Amino acid sequence: MSASPAASPNDAQVSGQPAKSGNEQVKFRFCGDCSNMLAPKEDRINNKLMYCCRMCQYSEEADSACIFRNNIYNVIGETAGVTQDVGSDPTLPRSNKRCPKCHEVEAVFFQSQQRSAETGMKLFYVCCSCGHIFQ
């Protein structure tokens, strides 16, 4: 992937997340004359990428060929999908592990929901009385 266009005074960020070093955010660009959003357009004669206004004749050359970036974040929490009432699920295995919060001795347990090579098998326990999640 190529780098995104450099910021100009007319730009607003696409997302509220701060730009990471080496992975800058792609920004919206706006017309300096009428304040409408600029659209990417190919200049076939000069073989360049341009940003052009659809309302007036304003155009500017793009600093980079990157006009869109889709960052996919697929980090799943280890206890994703666990609710307080999971202790009443009769299909989950049970254990006599003591809850550190309420000191009851009945808990259900399940494996970590993360599926990656560096994550080992982690067991999580959910207290059947108070719903506290612990290891």
Give the fraction of residues assigned to helices: under 10%
Strand content: 15-25%
Distance between the termini: 41 Å
Radius of gyration: 26 Å
Please count the beta strands (DSSP E, at least 2 residues each).
Answer: 9
The biggest beta sheet reads: 4 strands, antiparallel
Helices and strands, in N-to-C order?
Answer: EEEEEEEEE
Strand order of the largest sheet: 6-7-8-9
Mean pLDDT: 74
Low-confidence region ranges: 1-22
Shape: rod-shaped
Broad structural category: mainly beta
Number of helices: 0
Can you tell me about this structure?
With 135 residues, the chain is mainly beta. It is 0% helix and 23% strand. The protein is built from no helices and nine strands. The protein is rod-shaped and about 75 Å long. Mean pLDDT is 74; it is low at 1-22.
Task: Please describe the topology of this protein.
Blueprint: E1 12-13, E2 27-28, E3 39-43, E4 48-52, E5 59-61, E6 94-95, E7 107-111, E8 123-127, E9 133-134
Antiparallel strand pairs: 1-2, 3-4, 4-5, 6-7, 7-8, 8-9
Keywords:
four-stranded antiparallel sheet, 135 residues, mainly beta, disordered N terminus, single chain, three-stranded antiparallel sheet, rod-shaped
Short structural description:
This protein is mainly beta. It is built from no helices and nine strands. Strand 4 and strand 5 form a beta hairpin.
